[in-house]
Amino acid sequence: xxxxxxxxxxxxxxxxxxxxxxxxxxxxxxxxxxxxxxxxxxxxxxxxxxxxxxxxxxxxxxxxxxxxxxxxxxxxxxxxxxxxxxxxxxxxxxxxxxxxxxxxxxxxxxxxxxxxxxxxxxxxxxxxxxxxxxxxxxxxxxxxxxxxxxxxxxxxxxxxxxxxxxxxxxxxxxxxxxxxxxxxxxxxxxxxxxxxxxxxxxxxxxxxxxxxxxxxxxxxxxxxxxxxxxxxxxxxxxxxxxxxxxxxxxxxxxxxxxxxxxxxxxxxxxxxxxxxxxxxxxxxxxxxxxxxxxxxxxxxxxxxxxxxxxxxxxxxxxxxxxxxxxxxxxxxxxxxxxxxxxxxxxxxxxxxxxxxxxxxxxxxxxxxxxxxxxxxxxxxxxxxxxxxxxxxxxxxxxxxxxxxxxxxxxxxxxxxxxxxxxxxxxxxxxxxxxxxxxxxxxxxxxxxxxxxxxxxxxxxxxxxxxxxxxxxxxxxxxxxxxxxxxxxxxxxxxxxxxxxxxxxxxxxxxxxxxxxxxxxxxxxxxxxxxxxxxxxxxxxxxxxxxxxxxxxxxxxxxxxxxxxxx
Length: 566
Hints:
54% of the residues are buried. The protein is globular. Helices cover 23% and strands 20% of the residues. It has helices at residues 2-9, 49-55, 112-122, 174-177, 189-193, 239-247, 262-269, 315-323, 327-334, 365-374, 403-417, 430-433, 464-467, 493-503, 508-524, and strands spanning 29-34, 63-65, 71-73, 93-97, 138-145, 148-153, 201-206, 211-216, 230-235, 254-255, 274-289, 339-341, 387-388, 391-392, 394-400, 422-428, 451-456, 528-541, 544-545, 563-564. By secondary structure, the protein is α+β, with helices and mostly antiparallel strands. It has a domain at 280-460 and 527-535: Dipeptide-binding Protein, Domain 3 (Dipeptide-binding Protein, domain 3), CATH 3.10.105. A hairpin with a 2-residue loop joins strand 13 and strand 14 (391-392). It starts with a helix and ends with a strand. The strands form 5 sheets. Strands 1, 7, 8, 9, 10, 11, 12, 15, 16, 17 and 18 form an 11-stranded mixed beta sheet that branches. Strands 4-6-5 form a 3-stranded antiparallel beta sheet, covered by helices on one side. Strands 2-3 form a two-stranded antiparallel ribbon. Helix 14 (493-503) runs antiparallel to helix 15 (508-524).
């Protein structure tokens, strides 16, 4: 039990005490720009970071993670642990206590019914929940009174903090979403665009893939916050324009995810209107391999396990694609000191970082060619493209529209040409690519291409839920409205068993061993081709105070504490 207690103790309550602000709304308007525009304000219907972070201004979890990765109480009075009696000795039950007096932005009380409903909503039959892995192993949620929530697990859970913790698993109002269960969830436009929340701001107007206007929540629990009366949350454009709008022109106060070359950022910052902020977490730029066939001729079942990919099911092809890439050069041209080459999809915290895959740090074009030769992929007709049994190695490679990503695409296309792989490049507006529209063919969940590139990370410092992303059940498909985080459609009973074992393992060193084993299985089967361990890079105006960049939760987690400074 001592090892299990140690893990739980690491999540003990931590109370922040920011400087008190004089008067709610006294500082007027704050202007935020995300060049990837949010398309929805419901994190349960989108795995996109842009949606998670925009929604975090409005809806909140019971607990979240601070800038150092510590778990801190939010809507809950404290973080339950074995030591404080909030987690039972068997580690099968966790009891949360809501702070008394919490109100929704419409003035109605927040109760345990809302918390229980949030679980029911995400796990409703026939629905597609982008965050379903957060509720793995939950068998029931009891609510003995209005402020008490008891989460019951079907197994011993040394880390019971998946449900209701972090920006990816917030509490939504039962009254607003009660008629939006299961297959009806995507149809509830008003609720999905304008959620009633407990956060510092409320949505006044939501224009998908464009602008969100918000105002201070009159029922926010701290009467002195937020300092800003309104928020303009602008989406769209590109990273260059977003950076300039804060660092050079001063038109905006905060710009997110400045995926720009280091020299470009330095020149912008020299204008003197703002500062660049950055920090490393678990954000990895990667290429996802599609193990299914995206051919449009397959109709409604394209991109599903019904139709295996014609050549990416060959591990030799996947390995050769990885071997051909010069990750150090990608870092140099794309990120400089804000990037590090990586061979892992799980690069941090340090205890979870594997060294078993470091061979990918050295580009090996000759080795990749030899591997494809030995696997029988040859250029039989002299057109420069390898083939086998009438199938050519011709790849559609998609990503979001962004200067750095297009530079990466161009280089990788060149390297793949050197090993006899033909590549067609496609870039899609980021607001659409990372959107959640189940009717769109261009989302990263639909993955109607052979490979796709993007970056992702997870809330907090424990990777249990994150590594569960690649369970068989997490594959997006029509039955889940194309929600799910297993973009490659990978399915391995051995992998699923590792996920299940980690869920019931308490010893921190054993958890690290299991997490590394899952990472290594994905890497050594070349299901994911990691490229760059990216630092989060954003910028804020010199006149915006209170900003604390957070790489372990929503980046704008403490917007309630932002204020204007001279």
